[in-house]
Amino acid sequence: MNSRPVLALILPPGPRLYRALQEALSGTGPALCPFSPQMPAFHRKELLTALAPAAVETISGQQPWVPAGSRVDPEVAVVLATSGSSGTPKFAELSASALRYSARAALDRLAAEPGERWLCCLPTSHISGLQILTRSILTHTKPDIVPRFDVAVVAASDAAFLSVAPTQLRRLVDAQVDMSRFRAVLVGGAALSQDLRTAAQAHGARIVTTYGATETCGGCVYDGTPLTGVRVQLSDSGRVLLAGPVLFRGYRNNPGLTAAAWDGNWFQTQGRGGPRRSIRYPRQPAPP
Q1: φ/ψ bin of 27: left (φ > 0), alpha (ψ from -120 to 50), beta (otherwise)
Q2: Closest residue by Cα to residue 11 from 59, 83, 64, 49
Q3: Which pTM does this prediction carry?
Q4: Residue 94: how many other CB atoms lie within 10 Å
Q5: Which of 71-75, 130-134, 157-161, 279-283 comes out lowest in average pLDDT?
Q6: What is the DSSP letter of 67?
């Protein structure tokens, strides 16, 4: 069976990362694992040792990693480090089909029009930022990439969509930025307080709250409603269970951890309660 090598990319967000993601999604390049160049060197080395990629690429060029680890399934396009809410680092393997499905479902939910661009000011080493690039690839648009969040840059942007964490939204509100310029402002990564939502809306923000995880290719529940094809239910212990075509393929080199979190159908999140009051649970047919 064919397999793919894993390339660790330690570069700031930009054209090279965009191209590498295109190649990973199309199958013409290796599976990609992006790292932030700002990550402390000792932590990066620890993660790279656990990942054991075939090669590491930095601004200085590409070098083989010794010893290289196992290759991944040919369907896996991206491998991302994630600790989730457990605090234990692990690497989630995401297929090209799951990443594309998630991106397309989000675009459909937002009724995105051809040519509408995204402003990316979230880390592209995390699923939230990386999926902004995937959506841009699918729509053949060039995203505005902001390596570090900057209120002035956001305020001057002519992009149609913005995705931020609540702390970033607070900075925009405090700076009295007019957010009516954006067709939608996606907010995820942490709970959004009603006070902050109201304040942002007073500045023109059309807020869309998102809920998801690295293992679900990012946000898979928008404003309390699952994206098309995504199913949500609660376990007996109150944990949120997620299923559908956005799910990961497992954790790299950790079948035991994979089996504990995913039974091949439902992914069990680690958080208890969490969005129980905000997520609605419509009956949906199983995705094809």
Answers
A1: left
A2: 59
A3: 0.91
A4: 30
A5: 279-283
A6: S
DSSP notation for 121-142: -S-TTSHHHHHHHHHHHHTT--
Q: Is the dihedral of CA 165, 163, 31, 242 positive or negative?
A: positive
Q: What does the pLDDT look like over 272-281, one tens digit per residue?
A: 554 444 555 4
Distance between CA 181 and CA 1 in Å, rounded? Answer: 49
> Confidence band (pLDDT; 50, 70, 90) for 287?
very low
CA distances from 49 to 45, 67, 81, 239, 256 (A): 6, 9, 12, 32, 19
Q: Is residue 50 classed as helix, strand or coil in its secondary structure? A: helix
Residue type, 56: V
Q: Which residue type, as a one-letter code, is found at position 18?
A: Y
Q: How confident is the model at residue 1 (pLDDT cuts 50, 70, 90)?
A: low
Q: Show the tokens assigned to 23.
A: 């190649």
Strands 31-35 and 267-272: unpaired
pLDDT on residue 285:
37
- State in Å, rounded, how far the first CA of the chain is from the last one: 25
Q: Tell me the C-alpha distance between 28 and 33, whole Å.
A: 15
Q: Is 284 exposed, middle or buried (0-12, 13-18, 19+ CB in 10 A)?
A: middle
What's the confidence (pLDDT) of residue 211? Answer: 95
